[in-house]
């Protein structure tokens, strides 16, 4: 997806030089700087291609005036940072914006067909045209990357000279000039021809360049280059075998996003002034020591009352007790969901909170008996919520869900005390599955067998995509999780039809393990589909009961049936069963798991076994 050429923007300089003040050339939304065009991602603007620069370095720092701080203490603790920053704005008030560097540097001219580095075409300043032909230069369609996140130019010289017995020689040592042309016979790689004017090798096609062993056969290894950090940053020692990718492939850049809801006691902003001093305060054991530390830190009276500071410290100590300090990052991150689940169940009444409170969760006024017999209980109206999504790192080639921290590419060359993030405010509906029915249902043999098929398929996919399969976490596919996930999808689809919300304006948040069985559906956009109260109104028991019945009946058939419901495997490498775009799939921005681990048969049953579905009793009446 190419951003619209809205106005002139600062592009970058060559990868080997600091960023220059060139005309502005495009605009991206703040959210896109986290989810789509974050640090290390390739971005196409007009006919040019750039890589978004890192967060450190003299020329890459985000302008502090255009990147305001965001605080979310619980998420910051897990990610080991002090605070977060919003990406620079892209509106008319922006004076700076995101910094980028030209990448790939290899370009071709469609007139003379020469293939060389961008600067060797001698383009005029601020333009990307051939100095001889004055035609727009075309960035290389191909790049190479490895599982460690490194990114490099495609080795065209080695590819052409591989048959000359010197494929590992220094590039360009033959003294010839490379040319690239398309024969026009087809759109396949065979029609893309590369040659060298040295005359010692024949013209070759790009066919076979995407094989896993293509570059290994040339004797090439990853050089560890990180163009988003600039050439002044030393390359990592890598040695992995890189793979060829299309420049616009989704495998070139995948964000590692972590998010958290703001819940009490951190959701009213009172703890924000204490952010620089938390590590020091946590080491103190007595109230008197805390009071003395605050007086010294603020040079007098602390803006936060001492009683509230002690309450916040007690809340942190409680979370430390629940999540072992020596545990892994995944355990600490899951602890965030546990606390959110507890708070969503307990609620947070608006009448008892200040106007600055960013989390309001109340019990519906309607009669909860309307949900009897549906297997659903405990609906809560989340009238106000705030979610912070942070860009922790990114991956290339590998799925972020199947990687360890060692596989994640860093956003900066040195450790920083902040990360890029975005915050969204909205509203939502929280509900739980009744514990007795779900506990009995998930023990059924047919249910566990279907979930196990998805579990095995997902585990296999994650191990295939991981650089070290032995370090892959177990797949989350359990009967309870798949049921909650599919239920969330059908509810979102139902509300998009019945309540007037576009499906892309709603988002799911699942709480599924041995002790949790809940889901939160909430608005997660900053436009007019955000917080107008329409979604909260759907959570009243009478209306929610009607929505569930309608959603389950709608899920009982699909325009692709009987193929859909009888499918033995569907989705990515068989990670879905009875699920397709005609029934339960959503826009990927609405789904936590990229439209995998779905099976509507666990909701409504199958023609052969109608009692397989958790909500089969709805269809029986």
Quote the average pLDDT: 86
Computed CA radius of gyration, to the nearest angstrom: 27 Å
Largest sheet: 8 strands, mixed
In the predicted model, the low-confidence regions spanning at least 5 consecutive residues are 1-23
The chain-level structural class is: alpha+beta
Fraction of residues in β-strands:
15-25%
Helix percentage: 10-25%
Instruction: Find the count of extended strands (DSSP E, 2+ residues).
Output: 20
Q: In DSSP terms, counting alpha (H) and pi (I) runs of 4 or more, how many helices?
A: 15
Q: Which of globular, elongated, flat, extended, rod-shaped describes the shape?
A: globular
Distance between the termini: 47 Å
Can you walk me through this structure?
The strands form four sheets. Strands 3, 4, 15, 16, 17, 18, 19 and 20 form an eight-stranded mixed beta sheet that branches. β1 and β2 (48-52) form a beta hairpin. The longest helix has 21 residues, at 445-465. The chain is 24% helix and 18% strand. By secondary structure, the protein is an alpha+beta fold. It is globular. α11 (479-498) crosses α13 (541-555).
